[in-house]
Known about the structure:
The chain is an alpha+beta fold. It has helices at 14-23, 37-42, 78-83, 85-90, 92-99, 104-109, 112-116, 129-135, 163-169, 271-281, 292-309, and strands spanning 8-10, 28-31, 50-53, 63-65, 69-72, 173-177, 183-187, 207-214, 220-226, 237-243, 249-254, 261-265. A hairpin with a 3-residue loop joins strand 4 and strand 5.
Amino acid sequence: xxxxxxxxxxxxxxxxxxxxxxxxxxxxxxxxxxxxxxxxxxxxxxxxxxxxxxxxxxxxxxxxxxxxxxxxxxxxxxxxxxxxxxxxxxxxxxxxxxxxxxxxxxxxxxxxxxxxxxxxxxxxxxxxxxxxxxxxxxxxxxxxxxxxxxxxxxxxxxxxxxxxxxxxxxxxxxxxxxxxxxxxxxxxxxxxxxxxxxxxxxxxxxxxxxxxxxxxxxxxxxxxxxxxxxxxxxxxxxxxxxxxxxxxxxxxxxxxxxxxxxxxxxxxxxxxxxxxxxxxxxxxxxxxxxxxxxxxxxxxxxxxxxxxxxxxx
Length: 313
Ligand SMILES: Cc1cc2nc3c(=O)[nH]c(=O)nc-3n(C[C@H](O)[C@H](O)[C@H](O)COP(=O)(O)OP(=O)(O)OC[C@H]3O[C@@H](n4cnc5c(N)ncnc54)[C@H](O)[C@@H]3O)c2cc1C
Ligand code: SF4
């Protein structure tokens, strides 16, 4: 067994990673590309005592394309996703979403597993320790109120992962293991809680081993992203609209709620009706560089644009 007081431990295999997690329960966190964890650490928002580096684990790498499913290892980098000819052919929107993350250097290191679990963001939270201390800590960093809303009860930090809306709109599933060996295989959308303080059901010491997308539903899908600059910018609104070979439409949004906003619809519903439902589900607040109202207005723009691209209007 590994020594507990070590701060940074490299795991060679899945079982070893789970053993180290069990041994350091509540104090550990997995690290893959580190592009989210290390920035949060630098800002004092991530305080795990032990980091378990999983980047050497071979079983967690690789893309496997089958007739019914495509399996993506959580350590597949966003650059690999962007450049995969098979994924480009089957799921071009996923490649577009991966390509919209950060910069080429970040995408070379950042993984898809880390992307679906990257921490929610807020203008008042993703700041240095001294900034947050000066303003007064908020609910997400053990303060008493939400600075964005002034309310004492809820945090609305936004889900900002760009691949999540695309994966969710294509019914992707996630497989992960608790350190006691218990396996979970669930729809990706179901791991998000909607609570900005603890946005996911997956704990720091649950190990994600696979993302699975159905390959037999003939998904056509369109991704859009709102951001200040065309590079090195987190999303202020990401949308993904898909239609399968039975005409079922699935829409997922990021950047306007702590979890992905998700809606299933059909060709019979108008854009206005769909947007009305999406806005009812979106709990966007003024905690982004773009105002809440602007982001909500852009939902209609993105849905209309996607519907046109898919030939639905
Ligand atoms: C300048 C900059 C710009 C960025 N821009 C964007 C952007 O536009 N869009 C976007 O979506 N993201 C962006 N990011 C965030 C980040 O780079 C990505 O989300 C990236 O995909 C995270 O992957 P990672 O492998 O680096 O994750 P890590 O930092 O290693 O981990 C992130 C989280 O996932 C957990 N984790 C990782 N792998 C596993 C696993 N297999 N099992 C269990 N837990 C795991 C970690 O414990 C941690 O909680 C940006 C980051 C930076 C620094
Ligand atoms: S939404 Fe409110 S509680 Fe949540 S991180 Fe932002 S300021 Fe803090």
